[in-house]
Amino acid sequence: MSNIAAFFRAWGWSLLIMTVIFAFSSLPSNEIPRFGWVDFLVKKGGHMTGYALLAAANLRALQLDRAGDAGGGHKIRPYGLAFLIAVLYSATDEWHQSFVPGRHPTLTDIGIDALGAILGLSLRAVYQLKKQKSGAQPL
Q1: Mean pLDDT for each 10-residue chunk of the chain (139 residues)?
Q2: N or C: less crowded end of the chain, CB within 10 Å?
Q3: 90 contact partners, CB below 8 Å, separation of at least 6
Q4: Distance of alpha carbon 130 from alpha carbon 133, whole angstroms
């Protein structure tokens, strides 16, 4: 498999999720739908879900990269690096929002995104443990 194909096989999901997050962040405040009394829950739940998926996709990519490294691997454990990538992307996304009309960056959103990343990685760890106990090869 070519290096480019291997890269996209590993990192494609992460890049897709980052693109979707960026697209939603690019919407001016007057174009964002309102959800009435559940608006806060829907929007912050969206943050958590997006970053849970991003962190899990990052972990998958790091594990695929590591499997192809013939034992070299990364110096930082994959879970920590997957979390770090998600939170750093969250911070850059908040900065990006400072350039979007009607939007502004908040540290609260970075914290919510970090909680989402922890949730995604925790669910992934539970899934991998169950797969290992059943004898199946985890992804």
Answers
A1: 86 97 95 93 95 97 71 68 97 96 95 98 92 73
A2: N
A3: 51, 109, 110, 113, 114, 117
A4: 5
